[in-house]
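re the bet — no i am not wrong, look at it urself. input seq straight from the record:
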Amino acid sequence: MVRRAICGVGVIALVGILGLSFRAQAEGTAKSGPAVGTQVPGPFHPLNINGENAGQKACLYCAHGANPVAVVFAREVSPPLTDLLKKLEAATVKYSKESLGSFAVFCNDKEGLKEQLEKLAADLKLKNVVLALDAPSGPKDYKIAKDADVTVILYEDFTVRFNHAFKKGELNATAVDRIVADVAKIIPKN
């Protein structure tokens, strides 16, 4: 009887450990960007591809102030990232009364990326999610890791509430849905 109880506890512990490892894998294995609970590092001026400052270097952090914001730092366009951008566009419309802001900064100097992003913004009909270009290292104080293909920071009142970071190939439909679910959690309850 005692042996069965010990075996049962061992199985439960193993399932718990495996569950945690699957969860960590689903969340991504990269460590990138400011940590949860810290202040967002502040202003930076990427080249805006669409939006009211299209074609100019403008501060997207400054544009949103203390409002809730979803920020994506990405290296390149991929189908899961495109899905995330579409869902962030919908969330930004849904939470427009709460002033949700969303933008994606591509940290890459690849030839032709600007034109690719202009086409992507047009194809996805992005009116609320601003796409922007920055240096491959990203804004210095944000500490975007070299091995992070996609880093998503969700913040409100200048404080990071969620940080999701993914190495190349890790962002998938499940992770996109989890990110979008977390967006709802940064919306202030009135």
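see?? Residues 1-26 have pLDDT under 50 and may be disordered. told u. also Residues 107 and 137 are 6 Å apart (CA to CA). so pay up
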